[in-house]
Structure formats: structure tokens, C-alpha cells
Amino acid sequence: MKWIVLLLLSVTSVIPLSARAYICENGAEVKNENYCQFITYGPEKTIIDDRFVWAMSPAPGDHIRSIALVVGIGKYPHFNGDSISKAVENDIDNLTKFLKEDQGFDEIIVLKNEDVTQENLNYFLDEYVPNQGKKYRGFARFLMTYSGHGLHLPNALPHNTKQQGGRKTSRVPISPKRLETPRAALLLSNAESELDTLHSYPLENLKRQLVAISPDYFHVLALINTCYGGAIYGWDQGAIDDNTMRGRGAFAMTAGSNDMQAATLGKENDGSIFFDSIIHSVKMGSADPTALRIAIDGKTVQRGGFVRLGALATSVSTDYEDINSQNIVTTTGVLQLAGPWVGSMEPAGVNARGGFFFLTPFFLSNGLAAPILPPVPSSSVPNHPEIQVFAAPEQYPIRGVDVSAHQEIEDWNFLAKQYRFVYLRGNSWHGPDPVFAKRWEYLRQMGIDRGLYVVFDYCSSALHQMQYLSALEAIDEEALPTVIDLEEPSINESPQQLECLHKSGVSATRKAVLEMAKILNKKFNKTPMIYGSQPMLNAILDEHFSPYMIWLSTLKKASLPGDDNLGLYGANPWTLWQYSSREIVPGIKRPIDISVFFGDEAM
Description:
- The chain is of the alpha/beta class.
- It folds into 3 domains: 1-43, no CATH class; 58-287 and 307-359, Rossmann fold; 384-597, Alpha-Beta Barrel (TIM Barrel).
- 24% of the residues lie in helices and 26% in strands.
- The radius of gyration is 28 Å and the shape is elongated.
């Protein structure tokens, strides 16, 4: 496809549609000919990157379109504000090239320096961009970027400053207690000084426009690199999910908080630190290696392809930390950057169900010829159970926990609101779990889906274990399938179990586990599940276990499982995936294990 780029100083002929509309030479439909010069426009594509189709699921006949508004102000002729001119120029050039060549954007609007006027911004954000969203019936993506000076505005708006923890990047502060926070604005090129509020564009106006745009687009994202940019959020928001790609949502990510200045390292080819980090992280594929992984016979054969917004924000924050560690001295002291802020641009009361994503290279291995884009949620490719799927855990809507006497639970109601199911431990190698019976009955009364897991004893026969497992007496028709937990014994914590396992050998242990599974199946008329780590399951399970469900644990010291401990041998994909042991839940004193179910409610 040939792109027609119209330079700002070129004379562009137009074909009048009516007294109020024109079609530019490149096909863009605008209010008048003056706007043609800002738009790089491509026709509707007949071939769309499969990743957009996979994430957005358009109906037959619907077109997917990606539209960007790139805004940058580096020249301020009325005062000494040109110190960032080279960085902003680089940002504009780098972003335009990145969006066109790497991200498949169909349409890029560029406003630079003196062309960034209130009139132009209002036209594109209030008229042109909303009209394009309506034209494509909600299957368009809109990205706005800004790089330039910002300033504080008087008359503070009510806001709050409590930050949400749990990750390096700060979500927009949300708190019942409202405090005063500064307003801020984008400083326009015709400003007379750094404090010229008359020639500025208030961030609350920009948020109003983005919120109004959001219902007509699948994804909306504003990337704001300016001093005090975090002030755009301004008030409390609904829930957000910036790590899920396949739901619609509108977000902003700012280079810092509402009181932090933007920065550049200042070399000839440097843009802002914020945008340089974003582009580098996406192009190198380092920002989000866990967005979608495929494994065959216990080996990861595909990763990459996507960078989710939440993962990108974390990557930028990590880059900031690396720069901070260098103790770079500036005119105002040692450079110290805080993490970017991410927040919703949705209307009041609307929750963002998904976040903007960028495209990054796929990494394929072990002879995989082309990327696989399986249905999600899923644990395998349809009709190919040997090709196992590990999407980002956030892509699986049904989540649950497993708890034992080690976790003191003070607020079961919160647990019930956050998680779809709970598995309780019935026993350990030291005997029955002392709180199982009480918790089992409590969960029954609350109506929470619950199940029992029993720790397999390598020193006892399956029949003998069934006789002394008192927790089995509590199983009722409403219970989830019972789980046989194949824990890995260690020389320090369970030397007797380790000795028994070695003495019995793999063959005898496999036979005993299979016998217990058959007994449980017959007793409760429900197919039991086998739990274990990748090494344990690969060692014990064989084709005789194909009728039984698998609960795969990939717990490790890292926050998320790496490529080396995903996937199982054979063609029996996981039903539950225990991906984290670090979940912090209010009302529970210790971190707990989190698992996801491979499907949705219908399954």
C-alpha cells in the first residue's frame, strides 16, 4: 500500500463534498482544506494483521482501523523554552515512523509547534476523531501522544494522593479521602512565558475529550510526556484492567505524576526518556514476554507478539530505575524519575475491561513455522491438545485460590468477591488439616464453589490413604472435583517422603496415583484432578492419565513463570494453572496461591 504524506507547507488540492466537508487527495474527509496538510492517510486495508482480528473479534464486514494523533511542541519563540526542541522533534519523528512501520497505523495526524493550537486540537478531538470512530462502528483504535512543556494552573481541583501498591508503576491514586491536587495544562507554542495560562490547553479539557471519544472506539490511549502530566486524571475512576487486550477500554499513561517533570538525556538522537523507553521496549520485545506463550512437549515454542499497556508501564518504570541508579546530575540536582501513572479515560461509572496493546516481534523455536493465535481463554489449540496455550493470566476470567491452615483468613467475603472458586487442603503429610471441616462448611453456607485437595502420601498405599482421609466425608454433590496433590518432597522438609518416593520408584508411584484416581472417580462419580509441578507431572503421568484433569503449578521465585517451566509432555493440557504464590489479598495475612481455569463460565 502506498502512503501519501502531505508536508505542512505543501499546497493540497481538495474535492468539495459540501459546504462543510472536503475529501483530501489522500482520501481523508475533513471540514476544510486547511486540515489536509496534517494527515497521513491510508485507505481501508483488505489484509489486517491477524493480531488485531484476534484481539478485537470484528463481525464480518467490519473494518479495523488504527488512528493516531501525534502532538509535539518544542519551539517557544516568545521565551527561552527551546531547550527541549531537539528532543520533541525526535519524539515526533520517532513516533511517526514507529506507528507507521511497526504498528500498522492507517492514519497519522501530526500537529507540531505553532500548529498545535486550541482550534486544531479541538477540531481533531471533538469532530474528526469521534467521526472516524463512529464510521468504523467501534472497531477502531485511537492513540494520542503529546511531548512538550506543561504548567501548573491555579484553582486546584479535588483529588487524592493515595497510591495503589503491588507493582512498580503507579495507578492513578484512588481514595475515599479527597485532597487538593494541582491542575495542569499543555503549554502552547505561542505562550509568552512558562507561566502563560492564557496560551495553554488544560488537561481537564483533554480528559473530557478523551472520555467523550472512548465509547466509539475499541481502544483509546493517550501517552502524555509533559511536566505535571499526572494531573490529567483529576478524579476517582472506575475499575481498570490494563493487562487484558481483548476487552474494550480507554486509558492514559503519563510520564510521571502530577508533580513530576518530564526529562530527556539530551543527546543528539535522544527524544524524551518516556517515549524512547516505550519505543525501545516494544521494538525489542522485552516489555511483555508473557502476553501469549505456546508450548509443545514441555518446551516453549512461541512467545511475544504483543505488549500490553500494563506490562509496558512496568517496563518504562524499570527503565526509569536504571536511569536513577546512574546518579545523573542536572541543573536542578540529581535526576530522579518516578514511575509513570496509568489511569482510566472512561465515562463516570464505566469500567475499562481491556487496554491498548502494541505489536512486537514473535519469537519462534523448535521448528514452529508461523505464529499461532489460539482462542483465549484456552489451554490448547482446538483439535490439537498437544499444543498448549499459556496466555497472560489476566486473559483468563475465572480465577481461584487454594488455602490451608497456614493462611489465616479474616475476610471471607472479600475472597468471595474476588475469586470464583476455593480449594481447601484436607490433609498434609503430618495428618488432617485442622481447619478444613470448619472452612468447608463456612464456604458451603456462603455459596462459594469449593473443592478438596489431598496431599498424596508416598509412604502409603492408595487404599490405605482413602481409609484415613477424613476430609473425604465432607464431599457433597456441589463440590468441585477432588484433587490429588503430588507435592515434591525435599530432604530438608520431608526426608521420609523423599525416601519413600525414591524407594518405590516412578513406576510404582505412578500405579499408586492412578489407583487413587480410579477410587475417587468411582466414589464420587466425578473425574478427579492431578496437581503438581511441571517436573513432577512429567515424571509421573503417562497416557493412562489422559482421562484425568491436570492442575499445573509453575510456581517459582520469579513473579511469573518463565519459559523453562511451562507445558507438559503429551496431549493432556492443563485444566487449572497455578501461576503465582505471591497474591496479596486483604484479610489474609500471608500471600496465597492463585490459579486460573482454562475456559469461561460456559465451560
